[in-house]
Design a protein that fits this description.
The chain is an alpha+beta fold. Helices cover 45% and strands 17% of the residues. The chain has helices at 23-29, 34-41, 48-57, 66-78, 83-96, 103-127, 139-156, 187-197, 215-223; strands at 2-5, 16-19, 133-134, 162-164, 167-173, 180-184, 200-204, 207-211, 234-235, 239-240, 246-247, 252-253. Strands 3-7-8 form a three-stranded mixed β-sheet, with no helix packed on it. Helix 1 packs across helix 6 and helix 8 (187-197) packs across helix 9. It is globular, with a radius of gyration of 20 Å. The N and C termini lie far apart (44 Å).
């Protein structure tokens, strides 16, 4: 376990939480000063193509330093880059600098970034009084919190969850064809999405431990009367949308 201290907004209390960071991730984290950790947490996000450019422009005699790796993976995590894509970048780095940067070291850096950022989100939620602590808040508060976080993501970024008729679905990319497809969600497949967007924890022995989203909350989101963006179809050929506009470029959501 590793403690993470939140960078809370002005007027909110400083909060520390424990995460499930691996022992290797914790040792990697301990290499950095608090100032360096702040720099890592504040790293800007980039598009995947920019990450590939960073790898390609470095010479084989210029492997990434630990702090560069930390910022590299933190930016990937903050930009919600798919784990499969992160693993592709990891493989590319390991092939280019196989002696200086073995894959296990890269996975440690990824583990650090993932749990550091999720710990920050949890700590800030606690500081702001988010209702995401099982055993402290009731079922209705927990469900409202989870839906609120999902709605915020759906409203701010490309939606994570859509409603297609009576089904809840998400958009996934087929690794073979490269085309976007609809995947029907069920409570068990919805739960990992909720875990990523709306972290929960539970008080144990005076400390807060990260936990998976309570299944009754996931089922409430799945079966309850909640509003999600409507998805009629994914167009992979030119089509006129309801607004009269001609779609599509690549794959368009209609």
């Amino acid at each position: 376990m590793s403690n993470v201290i939140a960078m809370t907004p002005p007027g909110y209390p400083t909060v520390s939480v424990r995460t499930k960071m691996s022992d290797g991730g914790k040792k990697f984290r301990n290499r950095f000063s608090m100032r360096e950790l702040d720099d890592i947490r504040n790293v800007p996000t980039f598009m995947p193509v920019q990450f590939r450019e960073k790898i390609e422009e470095r010479g084989e005699d210029q492997p990434f330093s630990d702090i560069e790796l930390a910022k590299f993976y933190m930016s990937l995590v903050k930009s919600k880059t798919d784990t499969a894509q992160i693993n592709i970048f990891t493989d590319e780095i390991a092939r280019k600098w196989k002696t200086a940067l073995p894959k296990n070291h890269l996975k440690t850096a990824h583990n650090f970034a993932e749990y550091e950022w999720s710990g920050m989100a949890v700590a800030n939620d606690r500081a702001k009084g988010e209702a995401n602590v099982k055993g402290t808040f009731g079922f209705t508060d927990l469900a409202d919190y989870a839906y609120g976080r999902i709605k915020k993501v759906n409203d701010t970024f490309a939606p994570e969850i859509y409603r297609h008729g009576k089904e809840l679905v998400r958009i996934v990319r087929d690794s073979k064809t490269g085309k976007d497809e609809m995947e029907i969600l069920f409570p068990r497949s919805l739960r990992p999405i909720v875990n990523r967007i709306a972290p929960f924890f539970e008080g144990q022995n005076g400390e807060s431990q990260s936990i998976s989203a309570p299944m009754d909350v996931v089922e409430e989101l799945f079966y309850g009367d909640y509003s999600f963006p409507e998805l009629a179809q994914i167009a992979t050929y030119p089509i006129f949308a309801p607004d009269g506009g001609l779609r599509c470029s690549g794959s368009d959501v209609i």
